[in-house]
């Protein structure tokens, strides 16, 4: 309503000052907003949480990853996200033969998708909502039925699925992921290490089908058909008919749809008396996609694709008029793409590649003029003459080796990415305004660097924590506490969470298993604009406190790793130290302390060398925002008993030991600490039953207010303001 009110005011002002263009713009924006609201109002479910038993139709997104089966299914006209744990390798093979349109008999439970439990993180509930999926169908039993209900769209998806299977089975394992990505838009088979290398260098977008790829494909087919003697009009008609099918077959991603619709518009313009400009075609594609699915404006691919395309069309031509060198032209296009996408990248990914501007000059030709054509030749031979497949494969393998070796070499360069954090809404708006100002000045003056300075300053401001915060990150059943002193004077991380690793059979292993360090802690830090921590303290060597250390250490610079003496005797700590050989370490016992400004930290325990167990946890007494804090790791009653004589354990805010286990938080300890607020980090419905009733009763008896991550999500204390929560 606030947005509609603002638009209405701007419309009235534009009307009063007789600004016709602004009147039209704000009028169309209000109409689009009303359409979005009406569309969104129809997006609801008739089902409720609970048991479900019935027949579903496989509709989209079939994924078999180790022992996990996932797919979008249709049930009584509504979409559900189905998940099922495969019981055996034989069952996995049976599920691999399933196709879109197949019917399944499913028994299970409908549960609501989770929101993001940490601020500024990926919201799975919203993601599914925009796909008009309101429930997760967690299946306990799945049986394939003989009858099918396949539509023409399902048939198209099945063709794509069969092609991807053929690529995976018959092609060289090194080049198969590239062919699948560049031809069918499937990146699931790309090695995680390779994908992350390209991502850090800012060239990962080349693994997706982009507008440039589509244009090259169309140009190639037009040249081929003309060589074969086809009239250009008939060729254009054929391409207009085939492009929508190609879009659907490649997953209908925003860049592909945009490029396809633009091409169709331009071709129609050539076949008719009406001439269509690139800008008109882009605007028409925007309107068409929005009317088909208004939620598209919230998708990252849509925002990036249109931001870059509008920038290139509106500013690119004026800027390129003065450029005579092909190399400089490529560099300028790369710079335009990077700057126009900075706001989107910062908001969604919290970082962007600094070197990507230069590396795109190398990688774009490599992918679009070598790997893409070779991928098409490989697909041609794969389907019509498999015996000749080795010819393009040999050449492509050389190109892939060069690409991956170069990426591996370049990613060792420091400062390849700029961690920006997620800008606040006002700052994001300012960045967008400065971006428009940058392009305006570049067009008129030809200068670049001086007009980039305001954008860079905004990005720097976005990484400064002005007030100071203490955040108990929701890592599930584990611990991770982030302390940020005001004005970035100090950033300290106590534990990084983690989970126990259980051995699985080879068939059941997942390609990219969930990692607390990689999937939770690292994104939380980057969203807050943190690219390095001054001290990372591992309280003790249990998996739920430090298993994520390696992943965090690879993504975030650790200036000093601190752990208790004896903690290195456990294999999990040995493995982490070996994986992070360049990280400075400090082994401590009670008595170690440090201070920064008004903040002080004093280690109270352990008093002697231990073995990295619960009672060997590092206990820290801190003064933050003129309040006493006590961070206790996983200490149990024996360690608590030993601390009773220490006056420094008195605290306003207590991090409850061992996730609220009944083996910790004895009444005598709480009577001595006298916490006004108690914080408990534990997983939702965890198998240990944490926090235990006995612990909660002890804290309630002491009149201590309890905040829990399983109920509140991330718990954030802002200096001089108090507590807020991730699930608010």
Automatic annotation (TrEMBL):
GO cellular component: plasma membrane
CDD domains recorded: ComA-like_MBL-fold
Membrane topology, as annotated: Multi-pass membrane protein
SUPFAM superfamilies: Metallo-hydrolase/oxidoreductase (SSF56281)
Alphabetical UniProt keywords: Cell membrane, Membrane, Transmembrane, Transmembrane helix
Membrane-spanning intervals of the chain: 20-39, 203-225, 237-261, 273-291, 297-315, 327-346, 352-372, 379-400, 420-439, 451-468
Organism superkingdom: Bacteria
Pfam family, one: Competence
Domain Metallo-beta-lactamase stretches: 477-684
SMART domains for this protein: Lactamase_B
Cell location: Cell membrane
Gene Ontology BP terms: establishment of competence for transformation
Protein name: DNA internalization-related competence protein ComEC/Rec2
Species whose genome carries this gene: Listeria rustica
Lineage of origin: Bacteria, Bacillati, Bacillota, Bacilli, Bacillales
